[in-house]
Fold:
Amino acid sequence: MASLRNPPRGALRIVWKAHKIIWKFSGRRLGTRSMGMGVIELTTRGSRTGSARTVLLSCLDSPDGLVVAGTNAGLDQDPAWVQNLRVDPRAELATKAGGQLVTAEFLAGADHDDVWARFQAADDQYSRYATMLTRPVPIVRFGVRGDGGSP
Structure:
């Protein structure tokens, strides 16, 4: 049975869409925090279509850039944005402070484990995902790009 901390996927989709609408129409002034973490708007290119794909994600700060975790709300498949970044690591990030072109770096080893532990410490939902998933959770760090190209 679903709880408030574990709503059914359909309810999550409604919440995600509402969050995106609030984010957009407030000019990124509202909806900038979720689960005690910052929120970013990530725009990637679809791995099959090449079309721009935008999603809001919770993030953590790191000394080398913002980091996100590809939990896909506990589903045992990577989220589409992860696949998009594997095909083309160039993306655009927007925060309440503005936008910037970035390059995605998938973390591995101790770097991955350290950041994944930080996500679990930030919100217990991530610890729950850790017990549910049989796949490794991709952790992505974004570094600023200097090429001026499109995402």
About this structure: The first strand starts at residue 33 and ends at 34. Helices lie at 9-25, 80-87, 109-122, 124-132. The chain has one domain: 9-144. Residues 1-7 have pLDDT under 50 and may be disordered.
